[in-house]
Write a structure and sequence with these properties.
Aminopeptidase, alpha+beta
Amino acid sequence: MTEARPVQPPHPPLHDGDVTLRPFHEDDAEAVARACRDPEIRRWIPTIPEPYTIDDAVTFIERVERDWAEGHAAAFAIVESGDSRLLGAITIHGPRDRRAFVGYWVAPWARRRGVATRALRLVSRWAMREMGLVRLALYTLEGNVGSQVVAERCGFVREGVLRNYDDGGDCVMFSLVPADLAGE
């Protein structure tokens, strides 16, 4: 198995004119805490603490900073291009043996604006190219149709249902491989 190696945040940050993906900063803690108190985020990411406090947000930011340095994950704050207002988070977990997982959440004040689709498209193409991935996987709880639509819009292929996968819930697995991007 290939050891994790640090991945440097892209410079300049990934962006498409509407959203920018950058590493988290200490001053994001309040917005992270506010977003993660949202019942919809907790519904689809059952591992998020409840209640979600500022201390939880600070711990999250410290952990993702360590993850970048140690090569365990590449976590990005999704922010509004131009004013850096936090819209969500997206993380590449891994890679190991040129395979990784991606996960994301969008703050309630940023939903239904294409934020997740824009962020997933940006980060998945970056990860495939910069990390040399042969597979980028994404899974959602079975009822999370919104995230499933985002995955498909970004070229991920639905592979099937993993029973009792995440905290006993069934999950839908998607993947993106280099051949899926051949036409881009």
